[in-house]
Amino acid sequence: MKIGVLALQGNFREHAAMLRRLGADPVEVRKPEQLEGLDGLVVPGGESTTFMRLMRLYGLEDAIRRFEQPILGTCAGLIVLDRDHLGLLDLEVERNAYGRQVASFEADLRLPGEDAPLRGVFIRAPRVKVVGEDTEVLAELDGKPVLLRQGRFLVATFHPELTDDTRVHELFLDAVREASLVRT
Q1: Most Cβ neighbours (<10 Å): which of 33, 45, 138, 167?
Q2: What is the distance between the alpha carbons of residues 88 and 150, in angstroms, rounded to a whole number?
Q3: Active-site pick, 15, 85, 159, 169
Q4: Cα–Cα nearest to 97, from 117, 87, 111, 82
Q5: Do residues 35 and 41 touch, judged by C-beta distance below 8 A?
Q6: Which residue blocks in the chain are alpha helix, DSSP H?
Q7: Is there a catalytic annotation at residue 136?
Q8: In the prediction, which pLDDT does 118 show?
Q9: Helices (H), 76-166
Q10: Any catalytic annotation for residue 161?
């Protein structure tokens, strides 16, 4: 599986390492033509305003809108995909909802059907304010959604790439495999 990792800024190296660990072939994406032939795409955490500016500059904004394979968005990646930015997700998001960098924290999250908690690393994390009808909430923190799935999109308000737990990336790669089977 060839998985693109948007490599304009942010935690793209950490996502690539996690994908490699799971047997995928990560490809750094900086130009629209690098999306061709990919089985999926990761939009990592970073700074959403910078991401949007750089995506416009490099012509990636419309290219990502046209990309039809599964997408994993984490932290700023979730923001970039929401209603107010690329418009690919039926979500409204509040940026930096938990406070500044010094207010960053970790928390154990419950996944459906899993006994072991998933450790979430929240760094200047967004909060999902409005969830669209077709969106499935997979994990919550204090009653607020932090891991969601909507069609081909899997998004997290936290940074799964900053722990050793591979379950979020495994969920994403399962979606990529499923989409690949449907195409063939």
Answers
A1: 45
A2: 10
A3: 159
A4: 82
A5: yes
A6: 12-21, 48-58, 60-66, 76-81, 167-183
A7: no
A8: 96
A9: 76-81
A10: yes
Please say whether the beta carbons of 103 and 52 come within 8 A.
no
Catalytic residue, candidates 61, 75, 85, 169: 75
Nearest in space to 159 (alpha carbons), one of 72, 97, 75, 73: 75
Tokens at residue 73, please? 């968005």
Q: Pick the range with the lowest mean pLDDT from 79-83, 93-97, 122-126, 169-173.
A: 93-97
Length of the chain: 184
Q: Which of 180, 171, 140 is nearest to 153 (CA)?
A: 171
Whose tokens are 């500044």? That residue is 100
Quote the percentage of the chain above a pLDDT of 70. 96
**Residue 46 confidence class, pLDDT cut points 50, 70, 90:** confident
Can you read off the two tokens belonging to residue 164?
Answer: 């050793």
